[in-house]
Structure formats: structure tokens, C-alpha cells
Write a structure and sequence with these properties.
four-stranded antiparallel β-sheet, 2 domains, 9 helices, Elongation Factor Tu (Ef-tu), domain 3, single chain
């Protein structure tokens, strides 16, 4: 497209028509938790026919108009994390303040009800937000596990332990598919491991042996982004499957840290309430040994 053609295209303002509205228990942007909340999408009567077949999807892509967002800002800070973080262009952030305040959310569809109501979870939009579009989330197309981003070390240092835990939970559940004891244990291990390196566990110089416990291994992979293709997975315990069942190993530049999970049945909430010493033992040694 030529510059002249682009100018003409931009002058022809696109018309957006809301197809529904968000019904959320959260009324203010500042009160929205990182994980989102349970809520509803109410589709307008003239568009309800478009919901046919949507109930076969577990997750949806939701596009909305963030009506409280400012449209005159080109730079902002991730204030939900910390107001001390450096400014970035809004195209490098998920700030609601941007030239066109369109939100992009992946939500879980709980139930399709009559009268054009969708019961959903992980909803990160405030009550009354106009809905622009809904699409089915397709894992084979939409999930890019190999995607990379900037080093989040500074962000992790400033977000505080509670918000960092929320972030780890989201990463663990998104990959594993459910919230369970193994995923909670992975979060506790990741919190400790992140402290050992003072930063981001997705760094390219950190590799991991996630062990052979299915839930724990899934969640560790989801949190760290390690996979065979980026050479950050090391399967060192295959000869002794039973021993590796309860172990997670992190390989840093000059040392290996081995987390050995202590046996015991706990609910996820109990994992978070427990002392580290009752959950796992930790051994760190030089990588040359």
C-alpha cells in the first residue's frame, strides 16, 4: 500500500459496534486482581445467534473496548507491578491507556446460558466494559510456547512477593491446565529458585530437570519456559525414575540446585501455608562436581 493509499485508508474511520457488555464484580481498574475474576458476558439480542457452537470451546479470545482508558498517552509504566519501573511505549505494554484502548483477553468459558449470557472465569475487565468481539481460542494456532520476551528480573524485583506468586500461578496453570497440589509445589519451588538467581527463571542461561511427577513437571516447564528445543531441559533422572519423581533440578552458570520434595498429601492452599522446610529440601553444589 502506498503512503497516499494508507492516508486515505486511515481517514476512513473504522466503525466498531459493541456486541455485548461485561458483567463483573469489579467496578474500578485499580481493584482488578492479576488472575482476573469470575463474571459474565451479556450479548445483545441482535447478536445472540452468533453464539451457536461456542459451548464446545473451553477458552475464548475476548476483545473489548476499555472505556476508561486514556487515548492521549504513548508512554506509560506497568503501574500494577510498580510505579518505579521505567516508561515504555504503550505498544510494548498491556496498559489500558493507548490510542485505541482495545483489550485482548484469554478467558475460560464455564457455561453458556440462555438469554445470551456466558459464564466465564479469568475475566480481567471491569463492569460495563463494551464487548467488541469473541473468538474461539485454538491452542495449535494461538499458543506460542517458544515465544520470548525481555528479561523480567527488574520487574520481578519490584512487583512484590504476592504479585509475583500470582504471576507464577498463572504460568503454571496455563501450561498444566489445572490448579492442583503439584502446581502449587512448583510455584513454591520457583519462588525459592528465583531468589537464588535474583531474577527471571526464563533466562536462556538457566536450564532445568523438571523431574517425572506429571503435575510438578508440567508446572515447572510452564513457569520456566524450558523445553528440549531451546536446550534448557535436562533429563538427568531417567535411569532412576523413582528418585527423580520427587526432584526438580536447576542448572545455573556455576552451580546445580536440587529441590527434593518431601512426601505428604496437601491441598494447594496448604502448600502455600506451609514452611519451606516441610515442603522440600534444597542442596546446591558447584556444577563441576
Amino acid at each position: 500500500m502506498t503512503a497516499g493509499g494508507l492516508d486515505k485508508y486511515c481517514r476512513e474511520k473504522p466503525e466498531l459496534v459493541p456486541v455485548g457488555v461485561i458483567r463483573s464484580p469489579v467496578k474500578e481498574r485499580s481493584e482488578m486482581p492479576l488472575q482476573g475474576v469470575a463474571g459474565q458476558i451479556e450479548i445483545l439480542p441482535e447478536y445472540r445467534e452468533a453464539l451457536g457452537g461456542i459451548e464446545f470451546n473451553s477458552h475464548l479470545v475476548l476483545l473489548c473496548w476499555m472505556h476508561q482508558g486514556r487515548r492521549d498517552l504513548l508512554k506509560a509504566r506497568a503501574r500494577k507491578v510498580s510505579s518505579d519501573l521505567p516508561e515504555k511505549g504503550v505498544f510494548a505494554l498491556r496498559s489500558p491507556d493507548r490510542p485505541n484502548p482495545i483489550s485482548f483477553s484469554i478467558i475460560r468459558l464455564v457455561k453458556k446460558r440462555d438469554a445470551g449470557i456466558l459464564e466465564v472465569d479469568n475475566l480481567d475487565l471491569i463492569d460495563g466494559t463494551p464487548v467488541l468481539d469473541i473468538k474461539p481460542y485454538q491452542p495449535g494456532w494461538d499458543a506460542v510456547f517458544a515465544a520470548t520476551t525481555h528479561d523480567r528480573t527488574e520487574k520481578i524485583r519490584k512487583m512484590g512477593p504476592f504479585r509475583y506468586r500470582e504471576s507464577l500461578i498463572r504460568e503454571a496453570v496455563n501450561y498444566h491446565g489445572e490448579w492442583c497440589t503439584g502446581a502449587a509445589m512448583a510455584v513454591r519451588i520457583a519462588e525459592k529458585a528465583s531468589g537464588l538467581v535474583d531474577g527471571d527463571l526464563r533466562r536462556s542461561d538457566i536450564s532445568v530437570d523438571p523431574g517425572t511427577d506429571p503435575c510438578l513437571a508440567d508446572a515447572i516447564i510452564g513457569i520456566t519456559g524450558a523445553r528440549p528445543g531451546n536446550r534448557r531441559i535436562r533429563l538427568t533422572g531417567l535411569r532412576d525414575r523413582q528418585a527423580s519423581m520427587n526432584q526438580v533440578k536447576f542448572f545455573f552458570s556455576e552451580r546445580i540446585c536440587i529441590f527434593s520434595v518431601r512426601s505428604g498429601d496437601r491441598e494447594p492452599d496448604a502448600v502455600f501455608a506451609a514452611d519451606e522446610e516441610s515442603l522440600f529440601s534444597l542442596e546446591c553444589r558447584p556444577s563441576s562436581e
